[in-house]
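Backbone-to-sequence.
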């Protein structure tokens, strides 16, 4: 089994990143997906006792962004401020526990980019030459003539490209080609999942790595970071953007912090930007004499039908509207997070639909989890006015295997970014508890005046619910906290060691409104 983010762990820090998103338009469900995956990992790692640093942010330079500002009739800096804020607002809304939000227009980042460029220029890794090629503005990528002919447009997005001929600066990627091949061969876990590793190896085997054009003349592209050694040019957006992973943790500014946090333990992204992260980025780091990140993880795409969800395809799904439409109060955010993480394995593509979201929410969250909590609280209220004091906690035989499996294998699933796998284990415990209620028929026990039996029956359920609420925390933090409060746990230290049968005998409930009422599909 692959292990995406556990090995090798350095001391107790864990540094993870999302891509920094373009600000030419507001965030959609695709951006939310990567950021929620990151949040789930960050919360899990914190529960394991790691000192986590979770970085996200926005990519704000380049022609595409400037054009978007013009189209919106806004001055470019005002425009990027506004759109960047939309990302911050969405991450807060989705309960994303990032530690720092970086913007490529931040002055400390600009300084890092310029200093890095200067360093590479002095080292002889950047040179000036004539450039002729075809440029795809939406992808911010250059292509050669045969690539364009073969694809009939931009090989990535199929749109029209423009032919360009001008003097530019180049980064000597070719110098590092054989090093990269060797590095990847020696580190087959560097790119995950395996299918993406094979893709990168295939790309390197079938293509000769050319030098990377890293400048744009200022007269053509004015919205960018000037090259420190030639201010008639600005730097190529990808070169600027990738460096956020260094500037975000103090590179060339706060040495202590940088040493503590670098290298990144995992860079998250979708497969669309794998080449930049698995080819350009390692070479840039090598040229700067820096350690390589531990893992580059490229997940799949959310699609509608056959189309990737994206602004340019005009099929974006707005996360705010989606949560509102669910009509679940606070738990609506959790329903969306749950759906994204449960519905498809992180490496695969997923097909988004409203029906699938509602059906997942109703079946797993309302029927299974919500009902279990609701029924148990009801019984505690009805039979014992909300306070259950049991003399014993006889863990039923049928609980043992699923709870042991959860305790033993949950962490492994999480390390492998197998979120559906981890959730299946949790929900197996939930379904065993629901079945236990049906089988034990507490209402009959109560009629037969077996009060102590009902007490221990409820204490077992409360303890089981407490345990699953802990394991659910990385996925649905709002609901996890609410469940714990309702079973009487006021101060929670989210630590995996607390997610075990504790022998707790007293539960004093404190009710809140039901978490996941069924959503009416009609
Ligand atoms: N600015 C660059 C990244 C620079 S990182 C140094 C960029 N920005 S982007 O706004 O286009 O974001 C791309 C990323 O957004 C993807 O890699 C993925 O993380 C996320 N997604 C955007 N659309 C997505 C889907 N339809 N499905 C899954 N993830 C999606 O590229």
């Amino acid at each position: 089994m692959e292990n995406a983010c556990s090995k090798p762990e350095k001391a107790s820090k864990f540094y993870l990143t999302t891509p920094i998103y373009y600000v030419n338009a507001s965030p959609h469900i695709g951006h939310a997906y990567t950021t929620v995956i990151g949040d789930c990992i960050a919360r899990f790692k914190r529960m394991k006792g790691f000192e986590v640093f979770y970085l996200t942010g926005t990519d704000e330079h380049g022609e595409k962004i400037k054009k978007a500002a013009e189209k919106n009739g806004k001055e470019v800096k005002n425009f990027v401020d506004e759109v960047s804020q939309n990302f911050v607002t969405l991450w807060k809304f989705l309960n994303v526990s990032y530690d720092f939000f970086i913007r490529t227009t931040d002055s400390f980042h600009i300084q890092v980019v310029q200093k890095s460029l200067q360093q590479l220029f002095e080292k002889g890794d950047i040179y000036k030459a004539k450039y002729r090629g075809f440029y795809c503005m939406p992808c911010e990528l250059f292509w050669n003539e045969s690539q364009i002919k073969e694809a009939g447009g931009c090989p990535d997005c199929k749109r029209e490209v423009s032919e360009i001929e001008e003097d530019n600066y180049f980064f000597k990627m070719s110098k590092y080609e054989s090093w990269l091949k060797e590095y990847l061969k020696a580190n087959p876990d560097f790119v995950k999942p395996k299918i993406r590793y094979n893709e990168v190896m295939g790309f390197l085997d079938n293509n000769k790595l050319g030098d990377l054009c890293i400048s744009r003349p200022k007269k053509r592209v004015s919205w960018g970071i000037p090259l420190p050694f030639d201010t008639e040019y600005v730097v190529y957006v990808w070169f600027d953007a990738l460096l956020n992973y260094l500037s975000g943790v103090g590179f060339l500014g706060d040495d202590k912090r940088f040493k503590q946090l670098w290298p990144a333990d995992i860079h998250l992204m979708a497969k669309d930007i794998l080449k930049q992260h698995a080819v350009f980025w390692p070479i840039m780091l090598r040229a700067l004499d820096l350690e390589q990140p531990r893992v580059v993880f490229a997940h799949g795409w959310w699609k509608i039908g056959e189309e990737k969800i994206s602004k340019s395809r005009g099929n974006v799904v707005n996360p705010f509207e989606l949560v509102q439409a669910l009509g679940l109060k606070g738990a609506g955010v959790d329903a969306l997070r749950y759906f994204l993480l449960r519905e498809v394995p992180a490496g695969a593509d997923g097909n988004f639909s409203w029906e699938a979201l509602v059906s997942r929410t109703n079946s797993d969250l309302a029927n299974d989890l919500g009902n279990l909590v609701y029924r148990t609280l009801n019984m505690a209220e009805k039979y014992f006015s909300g306070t259950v004091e049991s003399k014993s906690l006889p863990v039923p035989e049928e609980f043992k295997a699923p709870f042991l499996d959860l305790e033993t294998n949950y962490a492994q699933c999480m390390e492998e970014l197998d979120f559906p796998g981890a959730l299946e284990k949790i929900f197996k415990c939930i379904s065993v508890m629901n079945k236990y209620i049906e089988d034990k028929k507490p209402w009959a026990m109560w009629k037969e005046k077996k009060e102590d039996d009902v007490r221990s029956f409820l204490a077992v359920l409360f303890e089981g619910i407490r345990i699953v609420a802990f394991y659910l925390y990385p996925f649905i933090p709002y609901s996890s906290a609410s469940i714990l409060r309702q079973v009487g746990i006021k101060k929670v230290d989210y630590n995996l060691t607390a997610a075990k049968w504790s022998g707790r005998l007293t539960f004093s409930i404190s009710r809140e409104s039901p978490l996941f009422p069924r959503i009416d599909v009609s």
